[in-house]
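TL;DR need structure tokens for one chain.
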Amino acid sequence: MREMAKGSNVGLAALSDDTGSVIVSLRWSSAAGDGDADVSVLLLDGNGKVRNDADFFFYNNPAAADGSVQLLGKTPTDSGNEDRISLDLTAVPRDVERIVVAASRYGGSCFGELDDLRVTLADRSGEALLGFSITDAGVESAFIFSELYRRGEEWKFRAIGQGYETGLAGLATDFGIDIDAEGEGDAVEVPAVEQVPKADEPRPPSVESPAVFLAEAASGVQPLGVEPTPKRVPGPRTAKKKVTLPKVAKKSLAENDSWRPARLFPAPSLKSDKERELRATSVLLSVMAEVPELGRRLTAAFGAPAGRMQTFTEVTLPHGDSPKRPDGVIRVERAGKLWTALVETKTNGNPLKPDQVQNYMDIAARRGYEAVITLSNDVALEGSPLVDVRTDGRRKHKVALWHLSWAEVAHQAQMLIRHEGVGNAAHAWLLQELLHYLQHENSGCHGFQNMGPAWVPVRNGIDAETLCQGDQRAVEVVESWERLIRQVCLRLGGELGQKALPVQRAKRGTDPHSRRAVLADRLCAEGRLTAELRIDGTPGVLGITADLRTARLRTHPSKSRPRTGVTPSPRPSV
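>> reply
TL;DR here they are.
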């Protein structure tokens, strides 16, 4: 990897033959473990100004419609964070001559409080080509790390390292962004985005996030006339009352709003993926054991009985010459019989490793475990396994492989504490702490968020009318769409307190691969993705159509069709 000095530049073609698309990574660390910054990208014309406000990309405007810029989000490192930016240089408009990569801090913080400020650039294959470290940061609250600029038909990289004491507002003004003069702090006036939050306030969700956008759009079911079924009147007077969260939060005793309440499961100090996996597994399994309602809900579909549950983490089990340590073990006892399962956990976007899962399947088979449960942000689909494992047909003891998404865990916790209730107030408080932990930005348990590497090429191909039927990338997009819809069902169901399921209008017994191939060909021909949701207690189904040509999403109610061939999607195994 080539190290750059401040002010130096180099042509990308001289570094690699595969620089049509590059990944720019910004990273930093903090001795206190709590330092952070917001990445931003600006597209500039020949005059050194943005063409319009849409040329400013940051956490609430993370992607360009043409796919040229995409903020990939934060990845925790051992000592801080890394923000990655995908730049498709072949898709950058011809009137854009410079791409500025910057970052800003908020709440009065400055870059001098951070260590190891560094930018790196990698080619399409992920090979790191060059790096530049900033060593003179001080009171600046915004920094231009680097820029990419055109020289004829070639793109070049320049190491800049220029700081701004005036923060994001000063940086944005230099490049032609209009500033809201009446606002406070560094609020940059960009359409459809909110003011940059203070350090102690949570980030507002991105309006461009597919999961959030669809969930909010789908919540329009009530204005369309679909009302949830009211809960039934409780049974006999002697029935034990269920505890749910109060609709109105108790008034805080804090002296000011900046005080943060003490949490049973703290998340801000987490720095690495390994820490996140260990913490998330321990938090979830401990709550499952202490709150029977949650433990039962999460394991019943896997064949576990309703009984006394105990959970364990980091258990060492023999496996040849090298013992293995699954992330967790679940044991349920009922009437003297024992049901057991191994648990393998992943957080953030980390994928499950087939060889690791295979080892646990072999251990479970030899030791008589009933199941191996994988837990990650991904969503399993029928006929599309997350990991491929081998099973020895000669073994008498069969082990089931199941998958659970963090989004489903959050959904079940939300259903219990907001709609259905649990046995006592302590259990409700434990579930509330679990839900707060899962929703924290540092937990890594955020559910399905990435449409995959095929999304931008397919979207561009549809726009350019170059995507042909039979393209495997379209099938990958259809699978990602189905995963997204499943997560929307979980979020919508958690809000309404009713079960929401995707509906597949296909003949019974239809092969999932064939069905997705047909939908992929339809996507290539029409440029649209469609889905239908069924919500318990409603007279029809909710239709969703995403038109990739016009970049518009439409939701609409429709009457139920005949039941023949209409089947809610079942829970798939891994």
